[in-house]
Amino acid sequence: MTTGTLGGEFTFPATSLTVQRIGYGAMQLAGPGVWGPPKDPDAAVAILREATAAGVNHIDTADYYGPHVTNQIIRRALYPYPADLVIVTKLGGRRPPDRSWQPANSPQELTAGVHDNLHNLGLETLDIVNYRVMGSGNGPEEGSITEQVRVLAELRREGLIRHIGLSNVTPAQVAEAQSITEIVCVQNNYNLAYRHDDALIDDLARQGIAYVPFFPLGGFTPLHSSTLSFLAGRIGTTAMQVALAWLLRRSPNILLIPGTSSVAHLRENLAAGQLTLSPQTLAELDGIAATESV
User: Fold this and answer.
1) Which end of the chain is more exposed for a tag (fewer CB within 10 A), N or C?
2) Which residue in 64, 65, 131, 194 is the catalytic one?
3) Residue 272 above 80 pLDDT?
4) Containing domain of residue 41, as a range?
């Protein structure tokens, strides 16, 4: 597989970082519930090596996956890293012993999180760090993020971070962060059926800022749609490949980070970059969010 089949390229604004539009999300490299090591660490290493051999040069991770597990597997699999590899990590969360997901957004916690990522990835500087807003629910919640973004901006001035992004945020929070520092990407929940960020995606595209949908295939609740399944059958491909191909067509600033712990599924995900959707199919896919409950 050549890099030209991975959806094309995208350069993060005001940076020298260019990635293929289909990347890899490392969350599923950890054990069940994103806790502890995987059953087969060698298989996890093999997936990462398969991905990069296929041209993937954008890996999304967080040191609280495991915790620490995914970053340690990434380092084992790929260090010393390919020159063009962009590793994007997140701050703002922690995993206490009860395995819950809790916020970690104080200046001290954010600073410690940067150093944990640097240590476990074996890096001196992190390419991109997203501040992940951990709300009380599953989606973004309004509230000031000025303190946290200022901490990241200071860590950037210290040379520990190259670029800053945001995750699980509202349009107002994006604007708030941009008043403090440059933002190169936004990572929110978005897919074929969950399209609350349509206006935000278009606004970011006008600014050349990347939009990275997490759960592009539905996450812990995989997409199920009779229309999606029917169209995939008509095309002769899988429903998940169609869902990914639709995202690539939705906007040129969308970057994909589907995760999997299976080499076979990885290959299926990457093959979505070669899938062509007709105008009729795109129109039918666009109607899913309005007509179906998934």
Assistant:
1) N
2) 65
3) yes
4) 10-221+252-260
